[in-house]
Amino acid sequence: MVTVNVVVLAGRLSADPEVLEMPSGDRVAKLRLQVPEAGKRVLPLPVMAWDARARRGCERLTKGDAVMVRGHLVRRFFRGQGGGRSVMEVVASEVKKLRDLDGGE
Questions:
Q1: Bridge partners of 16?
Q2: What does the H/E/C string look like for 31-49?
Q3: Cα–Cα distance for residue pair 20/16, rounded to 1 Å
């Protein structure tokens, strides 16, 4: 069986990127991407940029910037007070700032 897990998304950042340092010493850039859906709805997606190349792409990004993210989907599971839950997020291999999605700059 062949499996393909590749996503390419374009949207706007709903917050400034956060760079977190993990206990292992690795650094990760955390983005919150708003992707347009049908109508006026938007789909909020968490994006994690572990790769050095992807993190470099986040350096000059700020809230409201239009970006393109290329990567793959992962699902993480949590156990909390109310039971278990999961979250789907994008692990970015590339992050690029785009010109305005509405045609301006």
A1: none
A2: EEEEEECCCCCEEEEEEEE
A3: 13
**What does the pLDDT look like over 64-95, one tens digit per residue?**
999 999 999 999 888 877 788 888 999 999 99
Structural domains in the chain, CATH included, are: 7-97 (2.40.50.140)
DSSP 8-state symbol, 57: H
In angstroms, what CA-CA distances link 15 with 12, 32, 42, 66? 9, 6, 15, 12
User: From the centroid of its chain, how far is CA 95?
Assistant: 8
- Residue whose structure tokens are 């292992």: 24
CB of 49 within 8 A of CB of 57?
Answer: yes
pTM here?
0.82
